[in-house]
Amino acid sequence: MSRFFINSKSIAVAASVLTVGLFGAGLAGAQPAQPAKKNTRTEIVFWGVSLGSDSKGQDAVIREFERRNPDLSVRVLSMGAGKMDPQKLMTSIVGNVAPDVINQDRFTISDWASRGAFRSLNDLVERDKNDPEAPKKEQYYDSCWEEAMYDGNLYAVPTGADNRILYWNRARFKEKAAELEKAGLDPNRPPRTWSEILAYSKVLTEFDKSGRLVKAGFMPNFGNSWLYMYGFMNNASFLSEDGRKCTMATPEAAEALQFMVDGYKIVGGYEKAKSFESGFRGGENDAFIVGQVAMKIDGDWILNTMSRYAPALDFGVAPPPVPDDRFYKRGRFTNEKDTFVTWVGGSSLAIPRGARYPEAAWRFIKFATSTEGRMVESRAQNEWEKLKGRAFMARQMASKEFNELQAKEFRPAAKNFADAIDMHVEMANYGRIRPVTFVGQVMWQEHVRAMEAACYGKNSPMGALKEAQSNVQRELDAYFEKERYPVIDLRLPAVLGVLALVGVVILMIVSFYRAKLGRLERGEAKWAYLFISPWILGFLIFTIGPMVASLFFSFTQYDVLNEARFVGFKNYAEMFGSDKTRLLKALSNAAYLAGVGVPLGLSTGLAVAMLLNMAARGMRFYRTVFYMPAIVPGIASAVLWSWVLTPDPGKGLINSYWVKSISAWMGLEVPGWLTSADWAKPALIVMGVWGAGSGMILWLAGLKGVSTTLYEAAGIDGATPGRQFWSITFPQLSPIIFFNTVMGFIGSMQEFDRIYVMKPNGDGPIGPDDSMLTPVYHLFNNGFAYFKMGYASALAWLIFTIILVITAVQFQLRSRWVYYESDK
Amino acid sequence: MNSGLFFALGTLAVWAGSVFAFQAIVALFRIVFSTESRDLRSNGRTVLVSSLAGAALLVVGGVGTRSEAGAFRFPLVWFVMPWTAWLGFACLAMAIARLIQTLTAINAEEQRSKSVSLGAFLIAAFVFAVLYFSDKSNKIEILKGGILLHAPVVAGIILALIATTAAMVYAARFAAGRGLAKMLVSQITLMVGCVVFGLPFAFLVITSFKEDRDMSSKEGIVWIPKVQDTIPFKDPKNPKFEAIYEGKKVVAGIISKKGDTALLDIQKPLAIRGITFEAKISDLKEVPTDAQIFSSNLKGTPVKGFVVENLDDGRKTLQIMEPQSLKGEQHTFMPAEVEPVRHVGLRVQNYSEALDFLPPETNGGLVYLKNTLILVILNVIGTLSSSAIVAYAFSRMQFPGRDNLFRVLLATMMLPGAVTLLPQFLIFRTLGWIDSLYPLWVPAFFGSAFNIFLLQQFFKQIPMELEDAAKIDGCNYVRTFWSIMIPQIKPALAVIAIWTFMGSWNNFMGPLIYVNSPENMPLSYALQLFQGDRYGEPGLLMAFATLTILPVLALFFFAQKYFIEGLTLSGLGGR
What we know:
Structural class of chain A: alpha+beta
Largest sheet of chain A: 5 strands, mixed
CATH architecture of the largest domain in chain B: Orthogonal Bundle
Low-confidence stretches of chain B: 571-575
Radius of gyration of chain A: 32 Å
Oligomer: heterodimer
Mean pLDDT of chain A: 84
CATH architecture of the largest domain in chain A: 3-Layer(aba) Sandwich
Low-confidence stretches of chain A: 1-38
Helix content of chain B: 55-70%
CATH class of the largest domain in chain A: Alpha Beta
Number of domains of chain B: 3
CATH superfamily of the largest domain in chain B: MetI-like
CATH class of the largest domain in chain B: Mainly Alpha
Number of helices of chain B: 19
Distance between the termini of chain A: 26 Å
Largest interface: A-B, 170 and 152 residues
CATH topology of the largest domain in chain A: D-Maltodextrin-Binding Protein, domain 2
Mean pLDDT of chain B: 84
Strand content of chain A: 5-15%
Shape of chain A: globular
Helix content of chain A: 55-70%
Number of helices of chain A: 34
């Protein structure tokens, strides 16, 4: 150990840098972030929206509200909570640091409400029924109001009401007129039925010679439709009337999913379509706006983008195409009233439980959702757009009264835009909503999973839906059956636990005084106990206590906000029952990451070590370069790699060279990396190998430890370098290999950070088709996104057991093939 | 399938032929530069055999892989098959190797062991074959490919190869030459390795200095950043003003005026852009903005001018700067008609803009840095002090139950964090610590099993005499620990300090679970949120990422040795 010594200078420098930095930061932080006058006002914290020049209207509403209510101010947090990040909101509610107003997607309201996470607004609506500002049921579209209700109570006030219609590119239809006519299709009107839209798509889709998608006719889920919309059209129910049975796996839904699969087949498959889409990204480069996709089903938000970036685009609108039988009123649809239906969604404002100023929050919600407040918003946005020389595209709103008013007042001059707005207003009357149920979010995620599995061809539509259905049913059952399980008071086990602890401590003290110790020994022991007390305390509070608690929770159903119920082995049964597929997927992902990643990482490390073992100048520099990836903070390197792995060859580092080499030589298309189910794990492994250069340090130490006499002897015996490697180097290094293999698997079971950062956006599956789900990620989702403490604890114990077993097995096996110097 | 197989075999032949040809050339040069006759004969034989074999293989391979006339194609082949097939073939190859070893074994024992392993591989291959054929959809596809080479390129490569070989063979005659050649080879390999490992890092840094237009390019990655020339410009139509909003300086444009007050629209800082506020006109100070310079063509005359106005349909109005005759005139151009005037340079604004986008209450990210530093410092102090004192007691002091307690401590090293994650959350919730930094550093003060174990190993190595001498001198335990023992284990402490530093700097799941408001966020979590918000702007994102990496890099350069020692210790922990 004489090699070590503290280089006091470098430490001093590092310490002073840190201190100065801290001091500077502290000074900067000490400046008042807000002027003193604000402190006298009550501050309403509003989550889930961001302010910017595109939300001038929203800004105006807030300013106007503050002007009218001098005692209140509104603090909008653009960061900190996404609309769709349930984990963040739930932790803040559970942790008693909830915001006052939250902007939430309406279909999740019943979910939150069922858990008691939101405050019911019934009393407030009732109290203020004579207040002209207060929201009233009659003002709203029934579907929108209904979506914000749960169990007969109102939990949120609807705001937007986006519905989806078909946008079609007239110019593209004209361009292909001859071919469309040849196929028996009218180029002057949009398709009305499913079979029509597929027929149009077939003509309007173009591939180049090498089979790459150049122009797409129609991609079923490009824009915003998902399976829900096609399901609604086909009268799929998704949930039984009484809300107790998930009916996702019906022939109607399977038919709708089959339509999506067929639609993707026309454009060359889901994978191809996805990478085609990602080449454009949203906004001004949207594939429909730049004319690369002929038809798109989307919400009214795209009008704003189009009026800004493609005001001259020759497009038309139509109701989204429906199943043929529905259109011709045949079969099941003979007595159907509505020919066309669409899906309506949107946001709403709610007050979380535990909000500090619910009364102030309600005042704000009332104003922001009133016709007057809405008018302030639209006017301000309109003024702003006018100032910029653009047409204002009024967004669809949940208040019917206001929606029709604003459609009249802010009518775009361009006919096709005005038509589009009229179409949206018209279709709002035929909007269907996602099932109002407390499992709304789970259903959404499961429906996305089923859709992906079927579109990727990993499962049949019916098979995928069945799996999704059983996963949703599990949640439903857990809720409806919970009455069967006895409530347990958590204070009891807590008190018992504390008593047990006290008992142990008393026992220890007693045995200490009973022990025959001399005066000196006793003194030493007292000091020693004092010295180890931090660890003892930490062990009791942060290790053994939580462990016991976790074991206890694994037999309960507990979501922190409601009382716990004792459910016996139900959680464990679920792990091996309805959740088996997903859990197996998570475990096999971990096994894949370790099985392929660890050997690759180890051999890379070894290769680098062999390189660095060469005698060459500038070794210090080289070592630094190889080591650097290992010290780049994990999140930063995940952020970096999500760009390095971008599928678009014009942007992604790897694919830009892939097209030049492998594509050019072998004709293999660029991989979709993180956006593709097959390539997501290889992508993670490639990234891991980059960081594995640091493993060389280990190997270097190991290599230096191998006695040269062994090689000399082998050389004399005539062993080739290869033979020397396998017979000397490898066995000598086997402890390192062994240790890393064990750690590698345990590590990949617990992968979380980089996957959280790198998984493609959106909720639902972790990575395409759950290809990036790891056991600990599964636990995190269960534990912190839904606060299913019981099930998550059971998962934790499963993970613990697996790790224990693997370690034990590995340590048993190691004597078979691992060489230890001391054994001989 | 058959043509594919032929192609695969042909490819193999071409590759083998090339190797033989290369061998022939090497041997030829040996003859040319060599003086010894013994070498001459054996080398001559090599030349003859290799060139014949090479030529034959190249011809066969050339025929087998011929796909189209024209340029020369160096064939490549790839098999697209399921993993069962891959493993099956691998086992088969191993079996064949073992078969050969069995046949050529020098004694019965070796023969027996090799044939056992031969059997094992055959069985494995059979199992994989069964697995492969059990799924009807499995199929093996042979991908034909090749590197398209034009005649001059081929000639160039061959000439270069021959020249290098000649030089190497020639150099090998002298000791000095051999040394030089070896050095060159190792330097080149190291360089190549460096490029591979350094490339993503270079990509990070260079991207953080690129303009948006360089983020995507048909030719591949843009490695040399360029920036557009700008000129300070006070727009008379749409002037920008410096004003005070909530006590902070902002840059804003006027929306409307009423009496002596104006309604303003914030444009900088970017985090609060779009917010409207009122201010007295007398308080405003006009500031110039940077107008971008473009070149274009006006009725045949090349012109250069700066942007006066960006119209919404993408057209730009330029005020001409060159040529002199047109100076000051304003013309409107279509987007396709203008070309930005750029020079090689770094777009440092990415950094200031990235910080500008952060929420105003974080003071341009300083609050994040402060939080991270608080966490790092408290964690390091906590871990070091608690682990050292506990390890000291376990290794140098006698007390009842010591060995049992230590066994318990060792056992907890195996415990995954996942088991205690949820109950710990509930504990911190009870304490009201959600949305604070406490859950992220307080546990550090209770020691960590692995560090205690490691330090215990170090303490054990310190000779007993030192402690005894201290005792005789009247030191109490605290004094002994602090003045005698601590200096002895400084290196280990440094290593642990660095681990803890890295661990708490990188901690992500903790802040993700416990922290909500920007005031309490550390850098790692802030970076992830930033990515969510600014995904479409890689320049800013990479700039922010680089900023979060810099302090760690700085520490690495100061304390490189401890980083590397630390890794060795951690990796050999299982030994």
